[in-house]
Design a protein that fits this description.
Blueprint: E1 19-23, H1 28-39, E2 43-48, H2 51-64, E3 69-74, H3 80-93, E4 99-102, H4 120-141, E5 147-151, H5 163-166, H6 180-204, E6 210-214, H7 222-225, H8 230-244, H9 248-251, H10 253-260, E7 269-272, E8 282-284, H11 294-308
Parallel strand pairs: 1-2, 1-4, 2-3, 4-5, 5-6, 6-7
Antiparallel strand pairs: 7-8
Helix pairs in contact: 3-4, 4-6, 4-11, 6-11
């Protein structure tokens, strides 16, 4: 894949007969991703926290894509019980899953804990997706050209993981000096570490499943506009957004490429090809060295298994 390829959604292959799961599918990048997958004939499961909004999103897609195969299901990534319930029902209905797009996320809320007591951004952005992937891995192993696409951020390069704090179940370090953006960056680094380590373990196990990473650059979504932190909302949502941000249909291209392009390689990190990786067509980009560090990958993997209770038995 090169910068000159200018890959776009028109190049998504026929997806008829394939089952694709997209988390956070009712708005922003998830909605744009779901729309294009449905347009190419895929059976798309919209995994959403708010079923009403999910149904509204599905109706909107159906108006644009007559005959779209869409299935709205509730998934609250902040609650591991909800993740298990979602995965159990999906497994009961599908013997195979071809693509899982770990897209959903939260950005820069005040310090909040998940249902299991973990810092919310670490819980939603990383732990929920780690658990979901593990619970669906056997169905993905039975899939056709199966892939797991985990959505990170250019911000992962600013993240730091404090394992001593995380071992206490608190990615926020449990101090009054909690930084909403610092915790967001940490969660996006965790996404990157997870996607790379998953690739390493799948390869070592001889699995047919590919793990890829993607990031959307700077894209105008509800992630920035709905954050409770006023300064983040003002700077990223209202000031820089209209000037620099690209539309969700463009920002979704890296994850669509990772999910569908025949030449997408396992372990690849796909992002925009423009300056600073903020805008542009999909291309392969570099991971932060920390994200590709084997020891960091091992420690985060083992800790994530402990915190979620989900173990990837077939991968070791």
């Amino acid at each position: 894949m090169t910068r000159s390829s200018h890959w776009n959604a028109d190049r998504i292959p026929d997806l008829a007969g394939r089952v694709l799961v997209v988390t956070g599918a009712n708005s922003g990048l998830g909605l744009a991703t779901t729309r294009e997958l449905a347009r190419r004939g895929g059976h798309v499961v919209l995994a959403v926290r708010d079923e009403r909004r999910g149904r509204e999103a599905a109706l909107g897609i159906a108006r644009e894509v007559p005959g779209a195969r869409l299935d709205v299901r509730r998934l609250d990534l902040a609650d591991l019980d909800s993740v298990r319930d979602f995965a159990g029902k999906l497994r009961a209905d599908h013997e195979r899953i071809d693509v899982l797009v770990n897209n959903a996320g939260v950005m820069a809320p005040p310090r909040t804990l998940s249902a299991q007591g973990h810092e919310l951004q670490f819980a939603v952005n990383h732990l929920g997706h780690f658990a979901l992937t593990g619970l669906l891995l056997d169905r993905l192993s039975a899939g056709r050209d199966a892939r797991v696409v985990t959505v990170s951020s250019v911000q992962h390069r600013k993240g730091r993981i404090d394992f001593d704090a995380l071992e206490n179940g608190d990615g926020a370090q449990g101090t009054p000096r909690y930084s909403p953006m610092g915790a967001y960056n940490r969660s996006k680094l965790a996404n990157a570490v997870f996607g790379h380590e998953l690739h390493r373990r799948l390869t070592a196990a001889g699995s047919p499943v590919r793990s890829l990473l993607a990031h959307p650059g700077y894209t105008a979504t509800n992630l920035q506009n709905e954050t409770p932190v006023a300064l983040v909302r003002l700077v990223f949502g209202r000031v820089l957004g209209p000037l620099l941000a690209q539309a969700p249909r463009t920002g979704a291209l890296p994850q669509l490429y990772a999910a569908t392009a025949p030449d997408a390689e396992g372990g690849a990190f796909i992002g925009p090809d423009g300056r600073g990786e903020l805008r542009g067509a999909p291309t392969r980009v570099a991971l932060a060295p920390t994200a590709a560090d084997p020891e960091t990958g091992r420690r985060l993997w083992e800790l994530s298994e402990t915190l979620t209770g989900v173990r990837y038995e077939t991968l070791g």
